[in-house]
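[recover] target loaded
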């Protein structure tokens, strides 16, 4: 099995969390891995983290040497496929730069195409900076939309996942899917429909069945309200009455074990206690804030609905911490672990 890891924005924490997590990632997953990025930047990151590593440039995944004891010895060997323009090596640390945006995009596209061709088994992405991406001429709100377009899918969703442990009581972990993605708050009301709520509910249901290996039963899903107090019977808004509740009822009719809508300020408390395996949030921050408070450095971002596997860290480029040798590697490690588990479950 081979994981393809994209380096992310060269000015951010991506390079150092990749090299920082590499040894433990190989030990825990026992897979091969390759980085799509720039060898020189990865080598700088290894020096920064005081990690004895040899970054080996390869042209194709076929050139990866079989894993051996040297993979987890004192000296790490990290294969890298060069992506992007050479000038990316001159990007200042912690700064928005079109060259970093271009290199990050090229790495993502290369990895997606290799995954579609079956050359790698999953893609794990380090964070990109959306403004750098746009300055480079690639007008996407984020990774999720790039993957969906390149894979030719319309029915997709962003999901955050926390495995069992720490604050998560359910042995199945906890997943949160978002009905709307990267968009201004003023736009979300037009995007929340019976069809969109139902579609995201079905996507997360399918994921949880696959992730936790449920046999003969369905994961328990809770659905968030949009308005305070779930609309208070129409007093604070009618989306719960006319959109969310009918979507839940239709999902029940199709066999899902689903309930809601519940007030957003209490549903995650119950989910954390193990009442739900998954939660359907109506918008980005409604799901992200709650889950990251429960486990910021273990959270994994997963794109649902793709023909390939894509996981990611659940944080951004962290320009304020980048290239100081202090970036947390936990989310990268967990993203690799979850990607491996998903690939094995296929």
């Amino acid at each position: 099995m081979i994981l393809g890891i994209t380096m992310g924005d060269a000015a951010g924490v991506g390079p150092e969390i990749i090299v920082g997590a590499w040894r433990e990632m190989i030990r825990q997953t026992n897979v091969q891995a390759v980085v799509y990025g720039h060898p020189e930047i990865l080598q700088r990151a290894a020096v920064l983290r005081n990690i004895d590593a040899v970054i080996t440039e390869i042209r194709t995944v076929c050139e990866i040497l079989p894993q051996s004891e040297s993979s987890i010895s004192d000296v790490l060997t990290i294969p890298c496929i060069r992506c992007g323009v050479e000038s990316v090596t001159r990007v200042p640390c912690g700064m928005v730069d079109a060259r970093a945006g271009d290199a990050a995009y090229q790495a993502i596209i290369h990895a997606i195409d290799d995954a579609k061709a079956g050359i790698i088994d999953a893609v794990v992405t380090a964070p990109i900076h959306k403004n750098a991406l746009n300055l480079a001429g690639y007008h996407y709100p984020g990774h999720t939309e790039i993957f969906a377009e390149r894979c030719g899918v319309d029915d997709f969703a962003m999901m955050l996942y926390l495995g069992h442990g720490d604050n998560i009581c359910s042995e199945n972990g906890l997943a949160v899917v978002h009905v709307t993605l990267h968009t201004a708050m003023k736009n979300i009301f037009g995007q929340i429909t019976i069809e969109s709520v139902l579609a995201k509910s079905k996507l997360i249901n399918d994921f949880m069945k696959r992730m936790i290996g449920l046999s003969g039963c369905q994961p328990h899903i809770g659905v968030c309200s949009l308005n305070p107090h779930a609309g208070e019977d129409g007093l604070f808004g009618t989306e719960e009455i006319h959109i969310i509740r009918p979507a839940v009822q239709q999902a029940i009719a199709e066999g899902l074990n689903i309930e809601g809508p519940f007030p957003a300020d209490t549903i995650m408390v119950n989910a954390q206690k193990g009442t739900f395996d998954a939660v359907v949030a109506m918008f980005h921050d409604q799901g992200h804030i709650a889950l990251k408070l429960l486990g910021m450095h273990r959270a994994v971002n997963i794109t649902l609905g793709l023909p390939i596997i894509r996981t990611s860290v659940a944080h951004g480029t962290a320009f304020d911490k980048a290239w100081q040798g202090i970036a947390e590697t936990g989310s990268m490690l967990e993203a690799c672990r979850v990607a491996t588990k998903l690939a094995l479950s296929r």
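[recover] notes: The chain has two domains: 2-153+306-345, 157-290.
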